[in-house]
Each structure stands twice: as structure tokens, then as C-alpha cells.
Amino acid sequence: MVEWIWDPIVATAAILLGSLAAYGLLIAGRRIVKPKPTPEKVKTYACGEELKPDEIHADSEQFFSPIRRVLKPFYRYIQPAHTGALNTYLLWAVVGFIIILVIILLTVR
Amino acid sequence: MIPHAPILAIFLPLFAAFLMPVIGILARRRDIKHARELFAIGTMIAVLVIVASMMSEVWSGKILVYQLGGWPPPWGINLTVDALAIQMAFMIAGLGTLVMIYSAAYMRRDTGLSYFYTLALLLMAGMMGTVLTGDMFNFYVFLEIMCIASYALVAFRRDSNSIEASIKYLFIGALGTSFILLSVAMLYGVIGSLNIADLGAKLAIIRGAAEPVPMILVAALALFVAGVMIKVAMVPFHIWLADAFTAAPTAISALLAGPAAVVGIYWVARLPYLPFGLPVGIILVSLGLLSMVVGVLMALTQRDFKRMLAYHVISQKGYMVLGLGLGTLGSVLGAQGGLFHLLNHSTYKCMLFMCAGVVLFRTGSQKFDELGGLGKNMPVTALTFLVGALAISGIPPLNGFVSKYTIYLGGIEAGLPIVTAIAVLVSALTFASFFKAFSSVFLGQRSERFREIQEGPKLMLFPMLAMAMICVAIGLLPALGFDIVGPAQAAAENSAGYISQVIGGI
Hints:
heterodimer; A: mainly alpha; two-stranded antiparallel ribbon; B: mainly alpha; 20 helices; 75% helix; globular
């Protein structure tokens, strides 16, 4: 049954071969240019202002902002519902129990 | 098999826990270094050997029934070790040993380590008891031992965040255990027995009768399911988990994400067949799907390393519950996938928390916005995190792919291709989330203050590397995993065999 589901050795060999071929193409297409870095060249600028490494970190909450926009209803209602208030959370658990009870009642009886 | 192995697997960590304060005092007086750490690791290795000694006998199809005090079931308390229980016990012992090794380095800056190891060993004893017991009330007692130890461990550092998280965990966890106790009391009131096999046999007779199932049994099942779901942290019962895993010392987060996750899922696998044997497949599939989706979407927006991992615990447990739910709807692959995912997830999630722990240990931060570029300083941690991230995202050829793929096939086998589609989508979102995590912590520009940061201590890297190797090995040789979960899945469904071997048949 396992062989039918997934032959990992063949698949891994194919993945490695594919990766090697892709890397070979990358190497073959690369122009050989001798880098000449100077301290000024490797600095990061934004609107003419030099930024320090600590200041150029992507905002982790907005990292996938398109996904947040697509799933706006979820993030508008479900995320704020995680209030941290214990009594709300206990209410969720009790409501969850009632829903389970109703489903079992409908299924069993 | 080592004589008295089932009871030794529970009593050894229990006695070691109570011996730990004495070891601490002796070590301080005689100036013996690392005595508590060595004692805890030694205890866990011994437990692992004891559990391993039972495996061949159990995998040959036998169910080990250990009668406490020589009293036969259902009159006396018994421990019952079938292939499902042995999978869980092996995972608890194996991952527990690795977490203890990790803790020896991770907790070295803390004080009160005698308390820490006492509680950690109590947690181990509780976990082992919940999966090996053949008695419902004993299950409740061991569950309470496990839970009370984990509430205390979450609050171990006694800062405001950990105390708040622990109190939330305590209240919600207590609600869960109260549900379970009430369910056990109702069962005892109606059936007059606490032995799981005896309850299963008597409930089968009630189910077989022409009359509808009594309302009190429906209520008992609903209470039991809700109690177990609180422990498993399925949405909407999940709310304790993110705070507890974020605020606990990372060694404890790893312990709760790995070995402790086993206990809840064990009962999710058991309860559709024993003792109730009533249909709960729809509930399991619904809660599993809901948890997968809500968990991953919450994880996507997190700014905190450990909090993101915590939400992924909810999402990945959703996969397990979904797979086991599909199993009750007739999909063997679904049930095997659920149990296989438990084996895999416990390994790589434990490892991912350990990676987060190494970063926190060295940098003092677990905020994505403060970290970055650490791959240059911590190549081993970055590599193991990458292995874990790819495994949890279901990328071939790692172990996570095999179990997720089996669950996808389970969805199709059960005639629910939409479930498979959602599961694949959640895997893609999981990958996106871990891409962010890897990029935020290990890639990009490194802050000036992290220039001199070093790789984690070797004692912390060893268990991480061991787990990374397990992830690769099971991915390349999935038969290793199927050899464990195949008999476990068959044992979970074989309630007649369980009953006949424990009490001699229905």
C-alpha cells in the first residue's frame, strides 16, 4: 500500500535531479561580473535617507497583507473575537459543548 | 518484555518526580553538578526502554492486560496496552527524553530546577497513565495529574504573562476535566462500571436494543467529547493554547506541543469505538476542518515566533482530528493519516519550538520584527528550522508530506473531495506562514546587536538534529511510520478484540 501512495526514493531523486538541473541553468545563464563593493554601495537607502538594518525589517503582521485583504471578513470578525477575556473564552467552550450535544442528539436519536 | 512493564512506565517517572527535591538537596550539599538533569534524563531513558520492551509483544497482535493487585477486570483496576496505546506511550517516552536533554541546557539560567523537573516528570507520569489505563476514572485522575503539572509549568517563570496564561489554562482546562468527570459519573450511574472494556461491552448491548439511546448516555458522550476537545484545543475550545504555549518556558512549550499533544489525540482515536461506540465522525470532521482553517489564518498574522507556532499546533491538530473523523466515516487511509500525522507533527513541532527556544535563548527576543539575518550566526538552528518548516507545510520528501498526503487520500476515499481541497489549501497557507517566519528570523539584514550571537549550545542542538533526522528518515522511508500507525489504527477499531482480551468477550 505504501508504494502505491508514494515512492519517496524515486520522488526524492527526481526532486534532487530537478534542483540540480535548475541550478545548472542558473549557473549557465549568469554573467561573470567582478563585484566591486564599496561601503557606500552596500548601504540601504530610502528616499535619499540611509536606513540602518534594524529599520528595514518587513512588518511581520503586514507580511501577507494581500491574504488579509482577500480574507477580510475573517480578520474583521474572528481575529478581534480573540479578546483574551477569560469569561468570553469559557462562554465559547460552553457554546461549543451545546453544539456538540445537539449534533449528537440529531445523529443518534 | 520487562516484568511489570506497564505499571513501571507510569510509576517510574512518578516516583522520580517525588525523589527529585531530595536529589536537588543532595546535589547542593555535595556540590554535584547537573545531578537533577542527569536524573531526569536517566529516568526518561529508563521509561523509553520499558515501553520499547512491550512493543514487539503488542505488535504481534497481543493486548497486554496488567491487573493491579491481582484483581481481575472489571472488579479491579487494570492497565491495557494495545497497539494504539503503545504508539502513544512510545512517542511520550521518546520525545520526552529529547525534551529533557534540551531542558538541561535551556533551563540552566533558571532557578528552582528541582521544582521544574519534579513537575516535568509528573507531567510524564500523567501522560503515560492516561494512555495506558484501562479504567475511565483512572484516566480522569491521570489527566488531572498531567493538567495540574502543566498549569504549574506554564507559570514556572512567574512573570505577569506566564501567570495570566496559566490562570486561563487552569480555568479552561478545569472546565474540560469537569466535563470528563461528569461524563464518567454519568456512565457509572447508568452502567455501574468504570472499566473501559466492560463499559464498551455493556454499551454495545444498549446500542443493540430497539429503543433509542438513553438521553443520559448522549449527554455523557457530549460532555466527554467536549472535554477531550478542550484538551486537544479544537476551535472553539482552543483559546487556552496560544497564551500557554507563548508564555511557558520554551522547553515546556515543546513538551506540550509534542508529547502532551498525544494524550488528547489518543482519546479522539479511541472514543468513536470505545467505550461509547456512538457516531461522532461528523463532529470530528467539522471541528478538524474549522481548526485547520482558523489556526492557520490566525498564525499568518502573528508577530511572535512562539505564538505563531502555537496557532499552527491548533491547525495541525485539526488535520489529525479530521483524519480520525474520516476514519469513522469508513476511510482507513484517513484514520492512518491522522495517527501518522500525530507521529510526525509531534516530532517536528517539538523541534520547531526548540529552534524558537534557541533563538530566544541567544537573542532574548521572540518577536519577528526584532529578529533577522540569524541564519549566518545559527546555521544548524536555521537548517533544522527549515526541515521542520518544510515538513509541517507538507513538502515532499519530508514526513509531513506522507501523513498529509494520506489524509488527502482519506478525504477522497470517504467521498469528501472538498475536504481534501481545503486540506491542500491550508497546507499552502502553512507554507506561506513558515516562509514568513524563516525569512523574518534567519534571512534578511541582521541587527547590529546580533552580530556576535552564537549558535545554540550543543546539548540543545542534539535533540533538534535527532528530530530533523527522524523527519527526513520517515519521509524517505514512510513504511517505518506505517508499521507503527497501521497496527495502531487496527487496534483502535477492534473494540471486540479489546473487550474479549480484557474481560473475556461480550
